[in-house]
Amino acid sequence: MASTTTTTLVAIVIVVVCLLASGPQEADAAITCGQVVGYISSCLPYARSGGTIPPKCCPGVRALNGAARTTPDRQQACKCLKSLAGGISVPYAAGIPSKCGVSVPYTISPSTDCTK
């Protein structure tokens, strides 16, 4: 069950991380997969089956967006999310950033290239 929850969180984070990937490149990533999961874990129920976005989801998405400022951090967050993407509904997960007021200039998808 924890693996499914982590997978859902990763998919959500991929969307947010890809949004941030356009920044200037810096040294190694400082963000960890554990941190990424921590930021988006409350979004998992919505990412799986829709309904109402949990109250702690959007603050977590915005916090992840703020924490992943460098290109390496965004790429790392994207990779973390992709590794956990099973068990979620892509349309629901893809809608989370906009529902939380976070702008993402690309389509959220399991095929997102985290290197770009």
Q: In words, what does this structure look like?
A:
- The protein is mainly α.
- The protein has 6 helices and no strands.
- It has helices at 2-20, 33-40, 44-49, 57-67, 71-83, 90-99.
- The longest helix has 19 residues, at 2-20.
- Mean pLDDT is 78; it is low at 15-26.
- This is Non-specific lipid-transfer protein.
- Plant non-specific lipid-transfer proteins transfer phospholipids as well as galactolipids across membranes. May play a role in wax or cutin deposition in the cell walls of expanding epidermal cells and certain secretory tissues.
- Residues 33-114 form the Bifunctional inhibitor/plant lipid transfer protein/seed storage helical domain.
- InterPro entries: Bifun_inhib/LTP/seed_sf (IPR036312), Bifunc_inhib/LTP/seed_store (IPR016140), Plant_nsLTP (IPR000528).
- GO terms for molecular function: lipid binding.
**What is the global morphology?**
globular
Average pLDDT taken over every residue: 78
Low-confidence stretches: 15-26
**What is the terminal-to-terminal distance?**
31 Å
Helix/strand order:
HHHHHH
The biggest beta sheet is recorded as: none
Q: What fraction of residues sit in β-strands?
A: under 5%
GO molecular function: lipid binding
Keywords: Lipid-binding, Signal, Transport
Domain Bifunctional inhibitor/plant lipid transfer protein/seed storage helical: 33-114
InterPro entries: Bifun_inhib/LTP/seed_sf, Bifunc_inhib/LTP/seed_store, Plant_nsLTP
